Amino acid sequence: MSNNMDMTKLVAQLNEKQKQISQQLYFGNEQMRGLAKRVWRVQEDERKHIARELHDGVGQLLTALINQLQQVQKGDPTIALSESIDLARQALSDTRVISRLMRPRILDDLGLIPALEWLVRIMGEPEEAEIEFHHQINTEIDSDTQTLAFRVIQEALTNAIKHAQAKTITLNVIATSKLLMIKIADDGVGMPLDTEDNPDGFGLGAMRDRVSAFGGQLTINSSPNQGCEIKVLVTGREMS
């Protein structure tokens, strides 16, 4: 009798354990599907952004250039050819900037640190923001992780300069064989807690999803008029 009761109890425990494992698998699959959907949304948002930049920037410059050249062709003396050349140069410059920001060749050719030094320079100069860049890289970093670091930092600097009007930004990057740590701190206007919670707020959701796809964590410390600190930590995987 006692053996039957023990067996019944054991079967019940096994059934309960199986039920828990099934639930964990279900929630794990749901999380993976949710993450895949958010990553897909990030890619679509980036495509929309690039399309808008091309249409509103380069597209309008080329339209103006065509109109000026047509006036020159008609012999309009009020149109100086030098103005058309300036428009063409501006369109070429904007195209190069968009191209480099989509996938800077320097990231593939020279690696993460030179790419970040370039990014810091081109983002700081036009807006007169001072960006201090410190790094300690003690390992080779694989291409995917370099891309992750570059994109997260690019998004964070854009937020700090464009949205938070920061004038001083500090960027720290540390990498060992099993750890990547990125910290971006600024003196901007900060953000309310509801913006932080909003997955679409200032691209924070996109950054968080990028980091989650690598098994990492992104934390934000900010409040209105108190600046913002974004910290990314990816551990437990070989970086090279």
Give an account of the 3D structure.
This protein has helices at 2-73, 81-102, 105-109, 112-127, 143-163, 193-197, 204-213, and strands spanning 130-137, 168-176, 179-186, 217-222, 228-235. The chain contains seven helices and five strands. The mean pLDDT is 84. The chain has two domains: 1-102; 112-239, Histidine kinase-like ATPase, C-terminal domain (Heat Shock Protein 90). It is of the alpha+beta class and 240 residues long. α1 runs antiparallel to α2 (81-102), α1 crosses α7 and α5 (143-163) packs antiparallel against α7 (204-213).
SSE map:
Layout lengths: L1 H72 L7 H22 L2 H5 L2 H16 L2 E8 L5 H21 L4 E9 L2 E8 L6 H5 L6 H10 L3 E6 L5 E8 L5
Parallel strand pairs: 1-2
Antiparallel strand pairs: 2-3, 3-5, 4-5
Helix pairs in contact: 1-2, 1-7, 4-5, 5-7
- Strand order within the widest beta sheet: 1-2-3-5-4
Shape: elongated
Q: Report how far apart the termini are.
A: 60 Å
Overall residue-averaged pLDDT value = 84
Describe the structure concisely:
With 240 residues, this protein is of the alpha+beta class. It contains seven helices and five strands. A hairpin with a 5-residue loop joins strand 4 and strand 5.
List keywords for this structure.
63% helix, alpha+beta, Heat Shock Protein 90, 16% strand, 240 residues, 5-stranded mixed β-sheet
